[in-house]
Design brief:
Blueprint lengths: L1 H10 L3 H4 L5 H22 L4 H12 L3 E2 H8 L3 H13 L3 E5 L7 E5 L1 H21 L5 H18 L5
Antiparallel strand pairs: 1-3, 2-3
Helix pairs in contact: 3-7, 4-7
Length: 160
């Protein structure tokens, strides 16, 4: 097995050999960049940013998680997430609470106002999601999700 991996690395060793259209990280970045750009104007009308809506989205599914876990789920660095949470908290969209057994841990909860705000943002997110998968059948979608989950397992640093 080690031999095959080494052969492959030697055979395809430059981005030029792979090509941008065959380099999955490039394609994933482009797709997410386009998805976020599509949503940015809609969210701006609500007075929200992409990181803020991403935070509300995660909390709408996994409310009450720790700030550390929220950082992983939202793919937002701790410093940016801290500012994002400050802003969301000042808008009464989230609340942070100390951990019961460890006061250093903070849990983040969606408020009723935050849930309502996310509910207003969701239709645009769903429409952009649907457009992204136009002409992709259920089997292709399932295969993509299975592949992405394998990739996430290969690169993740956290158990979530």
């Amino acid at each position: 097995m080690e031999e095959k991996v080494t052969e492959k690395r030697q055979r395809i060793s430059t981005l030029g050999q792979i090509g941008l259209q065959q380099f999955a990280p490039y394609l994933m970045n482009r797709i997410m960049g386009r998805y976020n750009a599509t949503l940015r104007d809609d969210f701006r009308k609500q007075g929200l940013t992409i990181p803020q809506v991403r935070t509300l989205a995660v909390l709408s599914v996994t409310d009450g998680i720790t700030v550390n876990d929220l950082s992983v789920y939202t793919v937002i660095e701790q410093s940016t997430l801290s500012r994002t949470l400050d802003s969301l908290e000042s808008q009464s969209l989230v609340r942070r609470e100390q951990g019961v057994t460890d006061s250093r841990i903070r849990h983040v909860f969606l408020t009723d106002e935050g849930r309502a705000e996310f509910t207003r943002a969701w239709p645009a997110m769903h429409d952009a999601f649907e457009a992204m998968f136009d002409d992709i059948d259920d089997a292709e979608y399932a295969a993509l999700i299975a592949t992405l989950l394998k990739m996430l397992k290969n690169v993740r640093k956290h158990d979530i």
